[in-house]
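Lab channel / #folding
Pinned by the channel admin:
"Please post every new chain as: sequence first, then the structure tokens as a reply. Keep commentary short and put observations after the output so the thread stays searchable."

First post following the new format, from NK:
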Amino acid sequence: QVQLVESGGGLVQAGDSLRLSCAASGGRFSNYFVGWFRQAPGKERALIARINWAGSSTYYADSVKGRFTISRDNANNSLYLQMNNLKPEDTAVYYCAAATSMVTAASLYRYWGRGTQVTVSS
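Reply from TO:
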């Protein structure tokens, strides 16, 4: 019912900033809890940031806390991830996802985008 499309990935150098966007369509975006996941080669897909329906509550993984900021614009059906002070270990495919409750496990998210590649060089 809900379709998600990520954009904004690319190749940057360590210390640079990048903003990812996720456009939603086909459903009531404001009804969902949304988050950003990432998956590096050989590693499991993991939640790095999450935001509730009103944008008033957020969660960040320890690895990105203080550097990344998640936000949403319900009027435009969009989700964002501002990434500052990027590190080589941030290199991964980044996905946006939507769930019907505030959950962490990837298996509990119902809708997914196809991902956008972020590569951070030293």
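NK: DSSP finds no helices and eleven strands in the chain.
TO: also worth noting, The radius of gyration is 13 Å.
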